[in-house]
């Protein structure tokens, strides 16, 4: 349990997440935090050096670093394994600066093209050397001490948070990345090995112990996974601002500490999420750390809030005090539980009495729901959306349907309650993402709408992944203009029947009518129409002499990739290389993107130079103006400051241009990364990662034009 | 003889003015003669060429509005503005006069040694303009100090050769070798770094980023425009393409601007890996150590430099001044003699020789040396020499001569604070308390060093003006925190105040 050990204030705002505690001189801890105006504050409570009295510094243990850029993320760690002290890593939107605080020297300042959104120091992700990992727009980069990017891969969306842990218990660390597209991705090296779908943007990830980690989402969900298994998840009212796994009760297993924007700090059990202790810090929590900040020999829990207050908590296993405190609570709990049970029992008795009475009544009225009836749930795809159809025997009425699914419905649930009595309800569902999920259905059935008694049926339906594709009649003439231009074909040792099995699992197939699914012993032809985008999808398989040709035609490469990945999981294929990729539009788009990137990149230098020139001019005229002021020459003061004003105006103008240009550049880079990701997703096995690393090499060598070739291949290979 | 060949020959013989004249004539006949045009461009550049690696004086605006330094309060010994205290082997302020930022005032004058530190005068416009020699001042921006004094007036004679603002960067860049000449012209003659940068950035793209020279020039322009991060990137990339000594030297400047002394040394050292035994790099390291007041390391490297280049004036002078301030005037004298052998003949050197002779008890040689120094002196340094003569006079007990010498010193340079201080001491001996007080006062306002502050505090204390005395002693301690006498006086004063 936590006992307050110390409490002091830095009198400086400590922004959320931008706080790190490290040993910059190798022995004593110091706290670094970003403050206003592109500055970084370093609080060194145990500095050995006497501060210089020449400067007459008050508050000797605080120093500032000028970064002159907005700090996006801050981290620290022993990046250089040969020296025994931590380096400070400062991430701004475009640059990563690694700085040696002790020696007052830059280690390197690297421009990160894909931007920086989050950062993590990973000591043992790569066993050979420590890395600093940055997550940007659709890409992850890892730099070593000599600023070489030793690690690069693409990810789904803007990466928000990262964590390192041994996800699959193979004694090697994996990288977990939480991103804007609701996914937690697990990377082993540069290869994506697992993907967890959540229902909102991922906010934080934090390791608890071994394979278990906590996550929090933008919508206020909080939960714990152990490997790929979810232990629990809960919704909390307050906005979460910090997470930390810590061995709170000193029993060897770590619990979860949660800091909120309201200033509340909770300790929750990592097994079931039960709250064990709470405390309050007044202002929004900016960081929870577990460090020996006072050099006492044992680490404490250090909690910082945005007002600059820092509180240290000792962890004690003062079992006696803890127990007595808590046994009181436990006894009360037990008593309440016992009483609740009694109430429930009494209520049940009462119900039973009532029921028996009603049954007697019902017998008289003959309005009871028959004990055996059929309720069918059918999935189908109609013109506008996918839907679930609930149907009961004629004569019965569905009073209402309640559906629960965090992924499909915005608020987690859906209720349909028709006014008229009907024995069939159609619930339209249009998920934003292709994902397979379980839907919890409660169907309330009665004799009539006004009946007194209803029966509740509880069913679980697995919602098919690609339900939004409507099966249409197969025709070979693509005259409608909706015909897909992208064709990806594979050669594999499989039978068309297996493909059909997979298709049945993920699509709503129309097998009843002729001409929809054409399945012969050596071929399969199915055609779909996406109900929203109105784009066709054609899946074909043919047995040829050298194996089965499998071919997907659709306009969206991303969806093709999704389908291929899903199919390979279904058929347990671990390695797959496309025979041929034809996507003229995407290829053209990527080529254009690459050209644009070159153009934007060139313009950027131009704008920066203009800005520098304006700054220099403005500076010179400020000095001249001040000199005129000292001489009392007011006419010159006015003249000089007029120039300053003009320069300032042009400075702002140039800045706006540079910003727009930069935004365009970032957007283009994002799309290019997305293209690489889509292309790599068309493959399985080693070539999947190979595409990514080859593309990266091409970009680094400024041969961007090769990216398209690498991603799409040079045509069919035989 | 063909005029063009003659022009070429003039260029080779460094007769740039003649060369330019012939080229101008030739160009009048045929405006589109590219060879002549190129030759004229080169000649103009060479005429105005200045070794800008050595001269890197920052302008007033750059210093006052400088936010390049990373750390505001770095650990002592890791920054140019906070040299290590004397405890780390540096020479004490007691022995060697230092500026308020802890830099020695005397010694070998180098580019950048006049840079103001983080002391209390920093950020004040009045002191910023003052350069470290009387009668000179700083340029407003760093680009303004690229002209050689002697040729500055001639540079613009005969109109502009290239209209910088009318250059089409892309077209110029396409003419490979011409482009290089144009960029150099823009940098060295026009001082127009912005346009030079435009041309160079186009050219580096055309060269597919494979020409180190373009990258180095872009880095130089960025540095002058104050974009030091971009400069660093270009220079590093240039080194990757082709490792050149000049690029390492340029790169070190970036770290100097960032006020990162140890990083600067690292940059030089990485240069030494590729170019072992390179004197410029060793000199750079030696200078950096000198700036952070670490004479032990600095001297070690000076000796290395002298191993390779035994006439290196800077190294000899640095060693000489170090030995002088560490009470070894005889050894210092030998170094100064070596300088005379090397052909250096200026008033500062003779002045130093005179001082060394005096401290080595060779009084008979000391005064002739000063005489020679006086005969070589000009307005910028004559006050210093008279000040030293006064110093010697005090040493031999001739207070009358000393008094006169100081009077001459302050009359030739009314800003000479040290002379005012010593005059004050002499007045005090004479019993003119008011005169002495006034001298200390003017000395302490003219420059920031601790002696006049302490003297004036002591005087005020003796006269019973404790309040004023306390103010002065605080100022003295601010300038020299380890000064024992000041500390003692402050303790006494505090006791007095407590007694009241």
UniProtKB/TrEMBL annotation, chain A:
Domain BBS2 platform: 482-570
Ranges where the BBS2 GAE domain occurs: 384-466
Domain Ciliary BBSome complex subunit 2 middle region span(s) in chain numbering: 162-268
Coiled coil location: 329-363
Subcellular location: Cell projection, Cilium; Cytoplasm, Cytoskeleton
BBS2 hairpin domain: residues covered: 587-681
InterPro entries in the cross-refs: Bardet-Biedl_syndrome_2_prot (IPR016616), BBS2_GAE_dom (IPR029333), BBS2_hp_dom (IPR055380), BBS2_Mid (IPR029429), BBS2_N (IPR029430), BBS2_pf_dom (IPR055379), WD40/YVTN_repeat-like_dom_sf (IPR015943), WD40_repeat_dom_sf (IPR036322)
Ciliary BBSome complex subunit 2 N-terminal domain segment(s): 20-121
Record has Heme as a keyword: no
Protein's UniProt name: Bardet-Biedl syndrome 2 protein homolog
Organism: Euplotes crassus
Highest classification ranks of the organism: Eukaryota, Sar, Alveolata, Ciliophora, Intramacronucleata
UniProtKB/TrEMBL annotation, chain B:
Membrane-spanning ranges: none
GO CC, one annotated term: ciliary basal body
Region named Disordered: 73-124
SMART domains per UniProt: TPR (SM00028)
Top-rank taxon: Eukaryota
Entry-linked CDD domains: TTC8_N
TPR repeat placement: 347-380, 383-416
Biased composition (Low complexity): 110-123
UniProt xrefs under PROSITE patterns: TPR
Pfam families: TPR_16, TPR_8
Polar residues bias: start-end ranges: 78-103
Alphabetic keyword roster: TPR repeat
GO biological process: non-motile cilium assembly
PANTHER family: TETRATRICOPEPTIDE REPEAT PROTEIN 8 (PTHR44177)
Name assigned to this protein: Uncharacterized protein
Organism, scientific name: Euplotes crassus
């Amino acid at each position: 349990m936590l006992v307050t050990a110390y409490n002091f204030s830095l009198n400086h705002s400590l922004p959320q997440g931008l706080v790190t505690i490290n040993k910059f001189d190798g022995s004593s801890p110091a706290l670094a935090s970003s403050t206003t105006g592109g500055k970084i504050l370093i609080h060194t409570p145990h500095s050995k050096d006497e501060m210089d009295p020449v400067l007459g510094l008050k508050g000797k243990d605080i120093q500032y670093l000028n970064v002159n850029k907005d700090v996006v993320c801050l981290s620290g760690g022993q990046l250089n394994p040969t020296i025994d002290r931590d380096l400070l890593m400062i991430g701004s939107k475009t640059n990563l600066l690694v700085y040696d605080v002790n020696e007052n020297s830059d280690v390197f300042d690297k421009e990160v093209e894909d931007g920086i959104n989050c950062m993590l120091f990973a000591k043992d992700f790569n066993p050979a050397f420590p890395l600093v990992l940055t997550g940007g727009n659709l890409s992850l980069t890892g730099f070593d001490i000599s600023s070489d990017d030793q690690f690069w891969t693409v990810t789904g969306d803007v990466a928000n948070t990262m964590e390192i842990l041994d996800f699959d218990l193979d004694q090697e660390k994996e990288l977990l990345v939480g991103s804007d597209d609701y996914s937690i991705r697990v990377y082993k090296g540069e290869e994506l090995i697992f993907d967890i779908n959540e229902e909102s943007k991922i906010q934080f990830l934090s390791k608890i112990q071994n394979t278990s980690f906590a996550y929090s989402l933008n919508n206020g969900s909080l939960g714990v996974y152990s490997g790929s298994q979810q232990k629990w998840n809960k919704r909390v009212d307050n906005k979460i601002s910090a997470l930390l796994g810590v061995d709170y009760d000193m029993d060897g297993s770590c619990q979860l500490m949660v800091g909120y924007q309201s200033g509340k700090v909770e300790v929750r059990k990592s097994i079931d999420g039960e709250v064990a202790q709470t405390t309050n810090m007044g202002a929004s929590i900016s960081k929870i750390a577990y460090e020996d900040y006072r050099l006492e020999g044992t680490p404490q829990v250090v909690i910082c809030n945005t007002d600059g207050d820092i509180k240290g908590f000792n962890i004690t296993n003062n079992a006696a005090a803890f127990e007595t405190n808590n046994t009181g609570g436990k006894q009360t709990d037990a008593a309440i539980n016992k009483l609740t049970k009694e109430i429930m029992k009494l209520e049940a008795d009462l119900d039973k009495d009532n029921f028996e009475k009603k049954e007697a009544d019902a017998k008289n009225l003959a309005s009871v729901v028959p004990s055996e009836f059929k309720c069918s749930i059918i999935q189908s795809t109609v013109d506008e959306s996918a839907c679930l159809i609930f149907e009961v025997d004629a004569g019965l009425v569905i009073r209402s349907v309640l559906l629960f699914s965090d992924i499909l419905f915005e608020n987690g649930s859906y209720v349909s309650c028709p006014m008229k009595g009907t024995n069939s309800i159609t619930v339209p569902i249009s998920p934003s993402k292709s994902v397979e999920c379980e839907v919890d259905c409660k169907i309330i059935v009665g004799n009539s709408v006004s009946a007194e008694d209803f029966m509740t049926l509880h069913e679980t339906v697995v919602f098919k992944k690609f339900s939004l594709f409507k099966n249409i009649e197969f025709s070979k003439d693509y005259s409608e203009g909706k015909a897909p231009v992208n064709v990806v074909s594979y050669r594999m040792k499989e039978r068309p029947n297996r493909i059909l099995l997979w298709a049945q699992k993920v699509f709503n197939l129309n097998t009843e009518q002729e001409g929809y699914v054409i399945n012969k012993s050596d071929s399969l032809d199915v055609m779909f129409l996406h109900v929203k985008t109105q784009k066709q999808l054609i899946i074909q398989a043919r047995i040829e002499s050298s194996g089965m040709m499998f071919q997907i035609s659709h306009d969206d490469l991303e969806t093709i990739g999704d389908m291929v990945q899903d199919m390979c999981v279904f058929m347990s294929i671990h390695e797959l290389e496309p025979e041929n990729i034809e996507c003229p539009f995407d290829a053209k788009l990527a080529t254009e993107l690459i050209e644009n990137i070159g153009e934007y990149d060139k313009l950027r230098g131009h704008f920066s130079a203009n800005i520098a020139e304006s700054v220099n001019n403005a500076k010179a005229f400020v000095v001249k103006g001040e000199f005129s002021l000292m001489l009392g020459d007011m006419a010159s003061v006015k003249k000089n400051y007029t120039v300053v004003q003009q320069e300032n105006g042009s400075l702002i103008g140039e800045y706006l241009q540079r910003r727009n240009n930069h935004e365009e550049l970032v957007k283009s880079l994002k799309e290019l990364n997305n293209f690489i990701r889509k292309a790599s997703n068309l493959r399985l096995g080693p070539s999947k990662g190979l595409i990514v690393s080859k593309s990266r090499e091409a970009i680094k060598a400024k041969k961007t034009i090769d990216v398209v070739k690498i991603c799409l291949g040079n045509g069919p290979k035989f | 003889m063909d005029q063009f060949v003659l022009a070429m020959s003039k260029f080779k013989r460094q007769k740039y003015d003649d060369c330019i004249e012939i080229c101008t004539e030739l160009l009048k006949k045929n405006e589109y003669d590219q060879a002549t045009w190129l030759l004229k461009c080169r000649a103009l550049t060479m005429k105005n060429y200045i070794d800008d690696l050595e001269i890197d004086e920052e302008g007033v605006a750059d210093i006052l509005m400088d936010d390049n330094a990373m750390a505001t309060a770095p650990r002592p010994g890791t920054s140019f503005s906070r040299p290590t205290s004397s405890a780390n082997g540096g020479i004490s302020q007691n022995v060697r006069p230092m500026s308020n930022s802890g830099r020695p005032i005397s010694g070998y004058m180098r580019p950048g040694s006049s840079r103001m530190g983080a002391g209390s005068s920093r950020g004040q416009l009045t002191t910023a303009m003052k350069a470290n020699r009387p009668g000179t001042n700083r340029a407003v921006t760093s680009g303004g100090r690229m002209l050689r004094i002697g040729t500055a007036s001639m540079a613009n004679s005969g109109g502009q050769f290239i209209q910088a603002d009318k250059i089409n960067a892309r077209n110029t860049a396409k003419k490979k070798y011409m482009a290089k000449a144009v960029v150099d012209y823009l940098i060295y003659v026009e001082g127009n770094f912005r346009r030079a940068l435009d041309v160079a950035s186009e050219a580096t793209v055309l060269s597919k980023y494979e020409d180190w020279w373009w990258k180095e020039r872009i880095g130089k322009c960025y540095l002058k425009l104050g974009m030091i991060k971009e400069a660093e990137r270009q220079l590093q990339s240039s080194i990757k393409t082709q490792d050149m000594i000049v690029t390492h030297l340029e790169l070190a400047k970036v770290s100097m601007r960032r006020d990162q002394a140890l990083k600067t040394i690292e940059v030089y050292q990485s240069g030494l890996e590729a170019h072992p035994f390179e004197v410029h790099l060793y000199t750079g390291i030696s200078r950096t150590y000198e700036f952070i007041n670490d004479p032990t390391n600095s001297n070690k490297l000076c000796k290395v430099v002298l191993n390779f280049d035994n006439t290196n004036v800077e190294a000899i002078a640095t060693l000489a001044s170090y030995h002088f301030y560490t009470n070894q005037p005889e050894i210092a004298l030998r170094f100064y003699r070596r300088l005379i052998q090397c052909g250096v003949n200026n008033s500062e050197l003779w002045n130093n020789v005179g001082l060394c002779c005096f401290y080595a008890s060779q009084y008979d040689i000391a005064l002739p040396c000063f005489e020679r120094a006086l005969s070589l002196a000009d307005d910028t340094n004559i006050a210093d020499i008279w000040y030293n003569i006064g110093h010697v006079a005090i040493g031999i007990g001739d207070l009358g001569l000393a008094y006169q010498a100081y009077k001459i010193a302050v009359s030739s340079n009314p800003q000479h604070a040290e002379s005012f201080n010593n005059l004050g001491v002499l007045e005090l001996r004479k019993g003119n308390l008011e005169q002495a007080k006034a001298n200390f006062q003017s000395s302490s306002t003219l420059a920031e060093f601790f002696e006049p502050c302490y003297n004036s505090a002591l005087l005020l204390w003796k006269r019973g003006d404790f309040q004023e005395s306390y103010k002065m002693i605080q100022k003295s301690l601010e300038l020299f925190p380890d000064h024992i006498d000041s500390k003692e006086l402050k303790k006494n004063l505090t006791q007095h105040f407590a007694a009241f």
